[in-house]
Protein 1
Amino acid sequence: MRFQPNVRRIAAIHDLSGIGRTSLMAVIPILSTMGFNVCPLPTAILSNHSQYPDFSFLDLTEEMPRIIDQWEKLGVTFDAIYTGYMGSPRQIEIVCGFIERFRTADTLVVVDPVLGDNGHLYSKMTQEMVEEMRRLACRADVLTPNLTEAFALLDRPYKTDCTTEELKDLIAELSEMGPDTVIITGVPVPGQSGLTSVIARSKSDLRTWKVTCPYLPAHYPGTGDSFTSVITGSLLQGDSLPIALDRAAQFILQGIRSTFGYRMDNRDGILLERVLPNLNTPIQSATYELV
């Protein structure tokens, strides 16, 4: 009898930067460590990510359909489709078509709607991009916006001092767009500047979960990519939503703490190499709460 390895496959649609632990340079090592076969569909190749002042950039928009066609010829199937940064409305259109072609009843579609942060859209994110990202969000099973992106997707003015009930309303409105599960990251804790939180809810469960973590005063690009990667792997492994939130939040906190003490360029991102083994160890204590 010939045995086949039971390794599940994830299509990861992100850009690839040679320097800086962002996008595919975070997605691939995290999900590979968690036991998945990551198949990258790169949207662009950069010398280094765009938070450096200068970088080279190769747009792969025209190559993406050729890669997708070849995958279809090979009869490839995916257990999950996970999307991140998109560089143009055309790329979002291509990805929407990819989801329609490769999605099955058992495929988990995770959309990280990268649009902005800290109350502002990124420089290349036009209103057309926001509108197209709404189209992509409608196709998600799991949607992981930060607070800025949540307000942008709903075309509502940004605010940081949200009550729990207001956050629940945001999640409910985003869920009405199509996703079963909505996870909002980077939520400030009112009156406690040393804390940050993540809040999430699934329509199929109807309970709202919150994880609160210490906030360290340092910015590391790629933490959002790392967070959603752990969420994706955790859910595919069969973890409940609150456990997935806990695993992802604790992993990011471990990564920041392992990096914070070094005098290094923050643009390089967190020291993933130091904390990847932690992905395969049990959670020692749960910090999630029902709200």
Protein 2
Amino acid sequence: MCNFKLLATKGSVVMTNNDKLKAGRAFLKADDWGELSKLETDQQLGKPTPPLQKPIHDGAKLIDLIPPTEFTLGTMPFMEVVKKRRSRRKFLDEPLSLEQLSILLWTTQGIQRLIRGTSIRPVASGGARHPFESYLYVERVDGLAKGLYRYQPLEHQLVLLREGDLSEDTNAALRGQLYNSAVVFLWTAIPYRTEWRYSILSGKLIAQDSGHLAQNLYLAAEAIGCGACAIGAYDQVKADGLLSVDGADEFTVYAAITGRIKDKR
């Protein structure tokens, strides 16, 4: 990576705005692949493969989702879906069905098959590392109580983390961008899942992979009569606090709001 000139002020070292712009541009470049070849990654050292998903505690409430083999929605032609895709912030007051939610979860992080400790999913991920956990704040879904949930892709289930109206805390985490959404997706990264194989390149790969998640959500939502809007300007501290993650080994990296929209076809 590039070295940047730092500005010393009153004994402390800070980066100027120009330094930060340069650092951001350097982050987007693929300059470290040569350096990676000189390193011993944890994978090369024979350390255990990171778990594919977080464990659940004993007695947790689990909710079965509609399996992909039983999906009845999402038959809109692909080119029509692409033409309709846009960020949507106005939603109907109607709840999502459990099938709609199941489709949105499976198309963003569901598992198609397992191969030697890795998972193949509907979204691309560098080295099939899939470093994300999918959390949901459910406001309106048929058959589900309001509250905070986490998706368990191996079982295609939801685990209830906290029941109740968390709209105020969720809206604060989204910096006032909850709008009238039925479900909020909050994706965290567990960086070590990618670092185990890619070490110093992991930050760039995780950033790329998060875009794959959001685009699949957009396309799947349009295909089933819903809309979505990705939220990049969330409050990091409040979002991590809402999800009860430590902000170091797991932290929020992206969010999106979803809900039903009026079909104008």
